[in-house]
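Hi support team,

I submitted a single chain yesterday and got back a structure, but I'm not sure I'm reading the token output correctly. Could someone confirm the output below corresponds to the sequence I sent? I've pasted both exactly as they appear in my results page.

Thanks,
R.
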Amino acid sequence: MGGISSFDRRSPVMSPLLPVQVAVDGSPSGWTALAWAARVAERGAVPLEVLHVMPRDLLSAVTGSDQQVLDGEAVTAEVLERVQRLVPGVEVGTRVLRGSPQNILLAESRLAGLLVMGTRGLTGLHGWWVGSVSRAVAEHALCPVVVCKTAADGQDAPPLPTGDVVVVVDPAVPALGVVDFAFRAAMLTVGTVQLIAEPADADALRELLERQQARFPELAIKVRAAAGAPEAELVAASQRAGLVVVGRPTELSLLGNTHPGIAAAVLEKAECPVAVVPIGRH
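Hi R., thanks for writing in. Yes, this is the structure output for that exact sequence:
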């Protein structure tokens, strides 16, 4: 389950049958992700599932301390309060899980239409979030992943895109699934889709645009020719965009690994939320 194949035209981003999942840890980045995910769930009329993952604490196990339990309960209480204040009509469930955040979130992504995460979180004994976790999940999850960044001043970023939704037609990734995701994301705000493509792909691009305009007549589309590498185009566009969308190939390489494509570079350098969409060749 998950991925583009589960999407539906009636819902802006995700399947009407699968929840929006969001990972929180009590950090500003996690609260930004929660706000983004809650708004998406509201617009898509789907449940919101909040995951708080705590690594197994050997010290607590030895000493019998309940500190991790108390921390989990505090985060859960704040999650419910924030969601009630932001989108009171959304169905929300919370789960506190123990183990490797990366492994657990990858496993949970099988049951989600969309997974939303922050970039970084707390440090020290009570926090687990590091950039490598969000990057690894985005590069291997079985559903699309949106990675949200916290504003430079520490305040929550806008809970939904306020600028263009930007997508590059990358020759390394089949275009249809990635572009479909971008159009559905733009439906959240009835915004504009900015599509960047290689000039050599003019015929294929024309056919793609005709298809999308027929399916999403309410959305404005801007098209421009790529002036550089796909990752550089997306990073530059992220300075003014509300969301950038990048496809991730899911085929195995000769070494038995999946290649992240341009996703890794965009996740590292983009200045707005990034959606990473797993796309197969078939």
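A quick pointer for reading it: The first helix runs from residue 28 to 44. Let us know if anything else looks off.

Best,
Support desk
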